[in-house]
Structures are given as structure tokens and as C-alpha cells.
TrEMBL record:
This is NADP-dependent oxidoreductase domain-containing protein. Residues 4-96 form the NADP-dependent oxidoreductase domain. Pfam families: Aldo_ket_red. One of its GO terms (cellular component) is cytosol.
Length: 138
């Protein structure tokens, strides 16, 4: 929290344009935003909380909107969890979940095409954060 006054000065002098925060646990956003002056933070970067297995970021969107915070949602594939290559070793998911999800994703990718139903599901998943999702883990 001691850093924010310095960031505000840098923004006021034009050295930086935006102030943002990122973190895996969603509670970090409310923790910080409830403790800094309104308008201090411009954007948050959340990852793995609006993906095909987790949509908890959606619950936080009204709060962020009320604060005027921009939202970037990254890692639609849960940091590689749903890719044939699988997640990195440091991935926070349990080892069992990593193996199960990676195998399931690999089988699905190998056997399924992009039919209308799949496209509709993806569209529904991305609805709250459309045009704000960065792909990763591919």
C-alpha cells in the first residue's frame, strides 16, 4: 500500500498512464481497492477465474464496475490445465486435478470438432468478459 502514493505521482506527471494490480486470489482485488483512494487503480488483471472450469470472476464484476475498474481476464485455459501439453509444474491445481483435466482435455481436443454447440458454449463462457480475455497456456 505504501507504493500507491508514488504511483499516483508518476501518473500525475505523465510518466505512467495507468495503475493496475494483478493476482491469482480474487480477494486481493477487494483488499487493495477498499484501501486506496477512489480512482487510484485503473485496471485489474485476473487469471484463471473466468475460464472453462471457473467463472468466479463474474461475481466480482459488479463490484469492479462500481469502482470504475477495467478488467482483463487472462488464461482462458486455466494456465495450460486444458491443453494437451498440460499446466506448468508450479500450477496451483492439485496434481490429481492436473492429470485428470489434462487427459480429459487432450481426449476432447483429439476427438471433437468445433460444432455449433461447442461454439455456443464458448460464446456463453466469454459473455461477461467478451473482448477482454487473453489466451495463454497454449
Amino acid at each position: 500500500m505504501r507504493l500507491f502514493p508514488h504511483l499516483i505521482k508518476l501518473k500525475q506527471t505523465g510518466k505512467i498512464r495507468f495503475i493496475g494490480i494483478t493476482g491469482l486470489p480474487l480477494r486481493i482485488f477487494t483488499y487493495v481497492l477498499d484501501r486506496v483512494p477512489p480512482g487510484t487503480v485503473d485496471v485489474i488483471l485476473s487469471y484463471s477465474h473466468y475460464s472453462i472450469n471457473d467463472s468466479t470472476l463474474e461475481d466480482l464484476l459488479p463490484y469492479l464496475k462500481s469502482k470504475g475498474i477495467g478488467v482483463i481476464s487472462a488464461s482462458l485455459l486455466s494456465m495450460g490445465l486444458f491443453t494437451e501439453a498440460g499446466p506448468p509444474e508450479w500450477h496451483p491445481a492439485s496434481s490429481q486435478l492436473k492429470v485428470e483435466e489434462t487427459i480429459a482435455a487432450a481426449v476432447e481436443l483429439a476427438t471433437a470438432g468445433m460444432d455449433e454447440e461447442t461454439i455456443a458454449e464458448i460464446t456463453d463462457i466469454l459473455k461477461p468478459v467478451k473482448n477482454q480475455t487473453l489466451a495463454s497456456g497454449i
